[in-house]
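Reviewers of the previous submission asked for a worked example of the structure-prediction workflow described in the proposal, so we include one complete record here. The input consisted solely of the amino acid sequence. No template or homolog information was supplied to the procedure at any stage.
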Amino acid sequence: MPSLRNPLQQLRFAVAVLACLLLVGVLGYMWIEGWSFFKALYMVVITVSTIGFSDYNMSDRSKAFTIVLIVFGTATWLWVGMALVEGLLERSHTIQRWRVTRMIQRLRDHYIVCGYGRIGHQIAEELRRHKQPFVVIDSEPAALEALLECECPHVAGDATHEDTLRQAQIEHAKGLIAAVATDADNVFIVLTARDLNPTLSIIARAGELETEHKLRRAGANRVISPYVLGGRRIATAVLYPHVIDFLETLLHSDDVDLGLAEATVQPESELVGSTLQELQLPARIGVTVVAIRKPDKRFAANPSATTVVEPGDVLIAIGEGKQLESLYSVARARAVLTRRAG
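From that input alone, the workflow returned the following structure tokens.
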């Protein structure tokens, strides 16, 4: 007997059973009543389809035979209908999977999120909110179903395997986030990812504090412990509630067009060699630089007006969405700064 897991196979088998039922019905009427093939076929069709014109005089044996046909015919039609619906749904899922695969193949400078648990789900939502390209890797059926329903780019598989990471286009990725449930798996993911893409930016989740140095040795650029981070945020919320509310508004609110962002100054940028006072960024594009991270990783918090902008500086600024986009533009390439209207 063929496997009935595949909806198409279920449909084929159900149709085959229906055909057998029709054949048995035709032969039964021909034997019981002595009818011709066409007359028997006509009677079987109107009986199995439950139309039942009842325009034939039949013996008691034929009536009993008809009752059996009606019962089995109705059940078989229901089976065929259910198999057909499942087949259509499977085809719809196949089309969805094809679309997702095509989306992944076109990804460039994207992020790979390994694990779609509670943390991975929040990471994916934030990336989606900021309109950043990403792909999720997971192997849990429930997670894969949820990802398929929202047509989120994803790869079904084990993120510790090279083939799975290659399917996620790791060679062209901008960053990877290892956020699966166990620290051991996160270490393997980091090791494998670093081997496949030496320049990849990797952030790893650490459940235990002693795992942090292992993840860094494996190749993670940054290691985050949800418990340490959560504890600090709770303590800060108790001590400085208004500061937390302000940062939440800047980083996570969709109701206010205000954000905190960073822009790396390229060597060819118009900003290079000028002081903040000379650039007049608040007046010209509407952003306020609150900190600068120098190429040697030092922070210059609340930089003075005489601070000179150098290549490789990371400007951390507050502004509205379009204003921050203007900052990105002038930081990346030579552009003429114009004074903001108003």
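Strands lie at 111-114, 134-138, 154-156, 175-178, 201-205, 222-224, 259-264, 288-293, 299-301, 314-319. We consider this example representative of the routine output the project will generate in years two and three.
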